[in-house]
């Protein structure tokens, strides 16, 4: 037996029948009694899960789903989320998906079952139609009955509040800055192409180079981790060699700082000096890259404040009309000691 059948039996709309049965809004006594009588006649049992979600404003739990909390990028954002949640007296449940789309769907389903007040998705979306359909199937009914959802990064199919880092523009600005140093031969270490963050940063870097009439150069894909950056850099060196040559890039761009950290280890292991033999740049400005030797050139994002912003979006009062909001976050190119002019002259750190 369905709620629609109860509504027809009582002669009211499905929305009125729902309100009368779950008690989340005021309904005239005569209508409430009519709906309940119809439910009794038809043997309708209200969906306890939907009722609990409709009262989610009373739940003090927020679910935070990220790719890998051990990654300093996600750790910094999570810190911002938890700080903002603590100010509101909320408890944060944290889960890592390790970039497995199916696991992300499962965690969202679990948080729905836990009647979480809000669900936060922290990290790149997947360019995968099956994932998009499955995620929308989980989130749409959750939002419809009162759940709140906010995300960080580009999730093209999800009509939810978003904190959007300007990954494409930031990578283009970095490319222009590296060209201004005199670099003309590049290589890029990327993560999986299915991640929207990877595709946006790669596209932006390509666009920035194209403005100067320079091609992207060799692209080596690896895991979106420190070890992934290490292995990608090793493969790059196998292809281009260690000695200076027209085929070896003067600058390597890793699309995330954690990959750049691994790449730095691989370059040193191969006997190459950074930046004297090859320059290296990353993206995100995770805290540890300032302490590297040399400190890493990167595109800085305000990671902790991004976490605070996504929490604020999840808790904002939307009123009667619910419209998704996008908060755009610009990155700032920070030139440090890991990049220099081609030919062995080191660039002095400016940060």
From TrEMBL:
Gene3D superfamilies linked: 3.40.50.2300, lambda repressor-like DNA-binding domains
UniProt xrefs under InterPro entries: HTH_LacI, LacI/GalR-like_sensor, Lambda_DNA-bd_dom_sf, Peripla_BP_I
Keywords for this protein: DNA-binding, Transcription, Transcription regulation
PROSITE patterns, per the entry: HTH_LACI_2 (PS50932)
Domain HTH lacI-type: 1-55
Domain of life assignment: Bacteria
This protein's record includes keyword Calcium: no
MF (Gene Ontology): DNA binding
Name of the protein: LacI family DNA-binding transcriptional regulator
Organism of this sequence: Streptomyces sp. 900116325
């Amino acid at each position: 037996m369905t709620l629609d059948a109860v509504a027809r039996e009582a002669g009211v709309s499905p929305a009125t029948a729902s309100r009368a049965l779950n008690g989340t809004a005021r309904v005239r006594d005569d209508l409430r009694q009519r709906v309940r009588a119809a439910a009794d006649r038809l043997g309708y049992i209200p969906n306890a899960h939907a009722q609990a979600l409709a009262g989610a404003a009373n739940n003090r739990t927020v679910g935070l789903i990220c790719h890998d909390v051990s990654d300093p990028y996600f750790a910094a954002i999570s810190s911002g989320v938890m700080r903002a949640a603590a100010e509101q007296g909320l408890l944060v449940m944290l889960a890592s998906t390790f970039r497995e789309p199916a696991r992300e769907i499962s965690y969202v389903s679990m948080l729905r079952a836990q009647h979480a007040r809000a669900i936060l998705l922290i990290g790149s979306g997947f360019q995968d139609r099956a994932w998009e359909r499955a995620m929308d199937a989980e989130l749409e009914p959750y939002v419809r009955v009162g759940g709140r959802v906010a995300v960080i990064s580009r999730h093209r199919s999800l009509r939810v509040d978003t904190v959007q880092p300007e990954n494409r523009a930031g990578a283009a600005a970095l490319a222009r800055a590296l060209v201004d140093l005199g670099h003309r031969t590049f290589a890029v270490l990327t993560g999986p192409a299915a991640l929207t963050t990877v595709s946006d940063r790669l596209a932006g870097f390509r666009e920035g180079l194209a403005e100067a009439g320079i091609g992207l150069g060799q692209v080596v894909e690896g895991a979106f981790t420190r070890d992934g950056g290490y292995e990608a850099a090793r493969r790059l060196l196998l292809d281009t060699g260690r000695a200076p040559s027209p085929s070896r890039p003067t600058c390597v761009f890793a699309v995330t700082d954690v990959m750049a950290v691994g790449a730095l280890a691989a370059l040193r292991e191969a006997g190459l000096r950074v930046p004297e033999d090859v320059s290296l740049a990353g993206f995100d400005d995770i805290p540890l890259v300032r302490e590297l030797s040399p400190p890493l050139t990167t595109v800085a994002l305000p990671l902790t404040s991004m976490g605070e912003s996504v929490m604020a979006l999840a808790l904002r009062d939307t009123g009667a009309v619910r419209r998704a909001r996008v908060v755009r976050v610009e990155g700032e190119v920070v030139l440090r000691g890991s990049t220099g002019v081609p030919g062995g002259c080191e660039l002095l750190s400016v940060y």
